[in-house]
């Protein structure tokens, strides 16, 4: 409750900074707003259970910004000095590496071993951003004023934005959940970059009041950072995600194209008298980049299809298309909190079909039985072939009466004759039913279902038995 009250105070400060620039109220809001944000951030850090280092770095960055605001206010309002270089600059600048370090910790925690592609793509876009910042924000300032301490510090701000942007790009382009918390964090970084860019560009076109309103924009960025810390889904930023085959989104290809063309475009724009030949070279470069990206996209798509096919083959039975034993074990383990029921199905009379009619007929029977089992269960249930003529069905949260009714339907479905090559084949099934107990492991549940299935066979086959 206290944290949310502090967040509200920080939000009010942002409104004041936007509405009343260059006033005493704005000065108070700048200090009180970032102070409240820092306090709320540290309170939120204490409640986080995972990735405390990342959250502490974010809170430290907010604190550094607040301390810089306090020092700046003291120098201007109390000491009566407004030096071009002050300790406030060092505090403000320190917030960039702190935030970037927090982003690095996040991506390393939630996508270990899966960062290469995201980092390479982020590097392309970061270089493009760095070149643009140098061309329009840093180089003109250094050329006009020389390598003074003030100019070097002024150049450090856009460089800090580039570092922070690099961290945000790796976060976005690497595997991981992209819920509200992630979107708020990326929005905060983007708003900070826009505000800092405004500090370098707007003074040439607008007065002090308009430029000072950027303090409010930066406060909005800070408020969003604190909101991330307070969100219940903040853990998605530091929670490891399973390894999955990647997909190449069209937007990523577009951004890579922009990154590749940024430097050539800036080179052309830097030429004072760019003639037709210069623009023709730029067009040819753009076309070549487009062709290269198209070929790159086609190759990646082909690799993705092959990877998906390999993953499917590794997790499914080749003959029936059902889940295999390994996938069944994973599904059963994942469903244990939902009190699953396991039905172990073993075919009766299948060996006779295989021995008399051949393996082709036996395969046809297995495929038909698999289709019938899958058609009889819910979409949330898992049907697997364990090997030979043995199948299993996992039904999360299914009551025992419903499980026995399902077993009756499965018996009837399996008993239907299978037509293949003009012949009819009949098999039956013995089914063992085992509801999961609260303290049971996946292996124990499957073993109980297997034992109940053998009881059904000993009792005369073509029936089900509920495990004790």
UniProtKB/TrEMBL annotation:
InterPro entries in UniProt: DGC-Regulatory_Protein, GGDEF_dom, Nucleotide_cyclase, Rev_trsase/Diguanyl_cyclase
Transmembrane residue ranges: 29-45, 54-75, 90-107, 119-137, 149-172, 184-206, 251-271, 277-298
SUPFAM superfamilies in UniProt: Nucleotide cyclase
Any single Pfam family the record assigns to this protein: GGDEF
Signal peptide positions (record): 1-25
Coiled coil location: none
Keywords on record: Membrane, Signal, Transmembrane, Transmembrane helix
Domain GGDEF: 338-468
Protein's recorded name: GGDEF domain-containing protein
Organism of origin: Dactylosporangium aurantiacum
């Amino acid at each position: 409750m206290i944290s949310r009250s502090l967040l509200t105070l920080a939000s009010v400060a942002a409104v004041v900074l936007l509405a009343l620039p260059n006033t005493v109220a704005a000065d108070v809001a700048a200090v009180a707003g970032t102070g409240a944000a820092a306090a709320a951030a540290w309170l939120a850090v204490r409640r986080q259970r995972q990735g405390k280092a990342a959250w502490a770095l974010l809170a430290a960055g907010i604190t550094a910004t607040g301390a810089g605001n306090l020092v700046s206010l003291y120098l201007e309002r109390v000491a009566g000095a407004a030096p071009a270089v002050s300790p406030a600059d060092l505090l403000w600048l320190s917030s960039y590496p702190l935030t970037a370090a927090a982003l690095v910790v996040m991506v390393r925690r939630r996508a270990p071993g899966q960062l290469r592609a995201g980092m390479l793509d982020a590097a392309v876009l970061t270089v493009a951003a760095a070149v643009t910042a140098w061309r329009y924000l840093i180089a003109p300032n250094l050329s006009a004023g020389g390598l003074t301490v003030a100019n070097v510090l002024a150049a450090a701000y856009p460089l800090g934005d580039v570092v922070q942007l690099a961290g945000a790009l790796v976060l976005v382009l690497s595997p991981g959940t992209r819920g509200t918390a992630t979107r708020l964090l990326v929005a905060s970084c983007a708003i900070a970059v826009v505000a800092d860019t405004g500090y370098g560009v707007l003074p040439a076109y607008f007065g002090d009041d308009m430029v000072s309103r950027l303090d409010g924009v930066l406060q909005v960025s800070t408020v969003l950072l604190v909101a991330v810390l307070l969100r219940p889904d903040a853990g998605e930023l530091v929670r490891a995600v399973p390894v999955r085959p990647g997909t190449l989104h069209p937007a990523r290809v577009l951004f890579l194209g922009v990154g590749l063309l940024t430097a050539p475009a800036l080179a052309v724009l830097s030429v004072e008298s760019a003639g037709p030949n210069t623009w023709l070279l730029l067009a040819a470069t753009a076309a070549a980049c487009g062709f290269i990206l198209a070929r790159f996209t086609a190759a990646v798509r082909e690799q993705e299809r092959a990877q998906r096919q390999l993953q499917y083959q590794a997790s499914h039975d080749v003959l029936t298309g059902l889940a295999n034993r390994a996938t069944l074990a994973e599904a059963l383990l994942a469903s244990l909190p939902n009190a699953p029921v396991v039905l172990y199905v073993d075919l009766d009379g299948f060996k006779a079909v295989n021995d008399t009619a051949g393996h082709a007929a036996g395969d046809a029977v297995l495929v038909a039985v698999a289709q019938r089992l899958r058609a009889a269960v819910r979409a949330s249930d898992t049907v697997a072939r364990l090997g030979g003529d043995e199948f299993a069905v996992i039904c999360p949260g299914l009551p025992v009466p419903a499980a026995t009714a399902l077993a009756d339907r499965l018996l009837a479905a399996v008993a239907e004759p299978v037509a293949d090559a003009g012949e009819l084949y009949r098999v039956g099934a013995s089914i063992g039913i085992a509801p999961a107990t609260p303290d049971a492991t996946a292996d124990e549940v499957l073993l109980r279902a297997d034992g109940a299935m053998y009881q059904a066979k000993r009792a005369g086959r073509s029936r089900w038995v509920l495990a004790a």
